[in-house]
Amino acid sequence: MPRYECRTAQKGFAAGKAFVxxxxxxxxxxxxxxxxxxxxxxxxxxxxNRRLEAGKEHADPAESAVIDAEILILNGEEFLGSxxxxxxxxxxxxxxAVKQAAEKxxxxxxxxxxxxxxxxxxxxxxxxxxxTALITxxxxxxxxPCILAGSELSPGQITMIGPExxxxxxxxxxxxxxxxxxxxxxxxxxxxxxLENLPEKxxxxxxxxxxxxxxxxWVNPPAExxxxxxxxxxxxxxxxxxxxxxxxxxxxxxxxxxxxxRAEEAxxxxxxxxxxxxxxxxxxxxxxxxxxxxxEEQFEAYRHAAExxxxxxxxxxxxxxxxxxxxxxxxMPKEINPALGLRGLRVSLEHRELFRTQLRALLRAAVYxxxxxxxxxxxxxxxxxxxxxxxxxxxxxxxxxREQYRIPEIGVMxxxxxxxxxxxxxxxxxxxxxxxxxxxxxxxxxxxxxxxGMDRYCDPMHEAVIRMxxxxxxxxxxxxxxxxxxxxxxxDPRGTERLxxxxxxxLSVSPAKLAQVRERAAEIEDSMAREIRKERxxxxxxxxxxxxxxxAEIPDPVFSGGVMGKCVGVIPANGKIYAPVxxxxxxxxxTRHAVSLRGNGEEILIHAGLDTVRLNGEGFSVYVSEGENVxxxxxxxxxxxxLIRARGFNPMIIVVRISS
Length: 660
Ligand code: PEP
Ligand code: MG
Description:
Layout: E1 3-5, E2 7-10, E3 14-20, H1 34-56, H2 61-75, H3 77-90, H4 94-110, H5 115-136, E4 146-150, H6 155-161, E5 166-171, H7 179-187, E6 191-193, H8 198-201, E7 207-211, E8 216-219, H9 223-249, E9 255-260, E10 276-281, H10 284-287, H11 295-308, E11 313-317, H12 345-350, H13 352-365, E12 371-375, H14 381-400, E13 410-414, H15 417-421, H16 423-429, E14 432-435, H17 437-445, H18 463-478, E15 483-485, H19 493-502, E16 506-509, H20 514-537, E17 546-549, H21 557-560, E18 565-572, E19 576-578, E20 583-588, E21 594-599, E22 602-610, E23 620-622, E24 629-630, E25 635-639, H22 641-646, E26 650-658
Parallel strand pairs: 3-4, 4-5, 5-6, 9-10, 9-16, 10-11, 11-12, 12-13, 13-14, 14-15, 15-16
Antiparallel strand pairs: 1-8, 2-6, 3-7, 7-8, 17-18, 18-26, 19-25, 20-21, 20-24, 21-22, 22-26, 23-25
Helix pairs in contact: 1-2, 1-3, 1-5, 3-4, 4-5, 9-20, 11-13, 13-14, 17-18, 19-20
Magnesium ion (MG) is lined by residues 376, 415, 436, 438-439.
């Protein structure tokens, strides 16, 4: 039972029969004369084109764009043209001609040395593998769910076969950041790569067990191990379903949303328990196509996602092109360090027409659902000002065209240290923050997130990153705007806990992780509530009926930061406020919004509403005076929560154990 070491691109356990995509699956190839070889090549190419076109039938615009790019490569002079010449001029067999054409094309592409070009190379090799399989005996689609294996795989092959038929993926080349990996991650498919000489080690119908935790693959293990693997696979499927059902029924205060890259991924998300889409990486629409997507194509994609979410928030990020994400049709400067170059919003600001086309599509789609627009890679306030101006221009253009539109809420991604430092200013103009911990980690710790062997340096739980998150959260809450986290940290169990305790309002994770993150969030919130109750049992009673809020979640940094002492919040069910302890009234604020009591061996402040000092007493009555003795549970104050809300203030009551 050989076991081979591999590398993990997407974690998870998978077992099943191998469906190998490789040229020589049907044995020895018998070469014919050049005319026969040309015939075989043309027949295979026609079939490949037909299958790719058919794959577009149920594809969303982003998927179609991926497939279009494959069609373009396939039929290009450098690929099919070169293979034809190989048969004609060098009398090669069709498979060899395809192989050489692919190698030549990849050689040309890799000379550029850029990551995105290398990814195109993966597409070329994937196409060559598919084409050769057709020439030598047909590229079937698996009859049952399988482990898809191949030296090279392309995203198009995954979409052609259909993710529901793929239990796991195993390849020789590839990387954790390749498009195949992104697609696998989105579909929750475990994926291992780096198995050298795969065609010699794995054959069609071999039984494979992928264990990405240990980054290894077992080939044809003994029957006993197969039984165990099948049982584990069934258990995992059952547990996932159970978790999904359980989680869907659990209500968490933290919103649990999904990250998607293609509009179709929004289908069924509400049933999977997503409170919304926290990040729609719109750039996939732009990356793989042969040309920029039109306003209409984008409008359809955004509208599709918004409608599928049935009124739930649908946060669409404007194109985050650049760094490792390049659009073939967009001329970009050669950069020594593209992560610090033209990327994210900078591309949008340098290509205004492209940006405005996207904004127009978003504004039009916003009529059909709860779309919010999110801007990536903000580092300066003026950038946001320019975005807001572009938005107005886009609206004006639609006005002139007499199109229906709505200007949605605009939020910013916090993924540069600069954005954290100026968070208070950004929070004045943005309606929400979403923290991109992947990039925030990269830029805070000065470590390239794409670089190999940097894992131990690229730690999103590094204290510096956590403090950045805390700072941004405080700045947002001080301005009463919500904070989401949409980087990978949100779906990491340790990250989930830390983030919830820091008081973030939303976690946005890949759809495959929704249930597990919701479960975890519910557990953490339960345990936080128990901690608060324990504090209460230590002699302090809630001053009002209502929901208790842990200190970290109080949307006011003075309280959540513990400046005055440990505290809890209460969202009051009504306006009656009772003494939380027995004792003496120490102070009554002239503006009647706060009273402090000395009792229980300490001073306790009851602060009704946030920032309500500014109401100058309006809406508050106090029934006790300084020096008076009160009993725990005695009515000491009253407020009018509705009036306070109507005046634009938050009526949350805060109980503080004033530290001396
Ligand atoms: C991030 O940087 O954390 C993020 C969510 O954006 P992306 O991974 O797409 O750069
Ligand atoms: Mg990012």
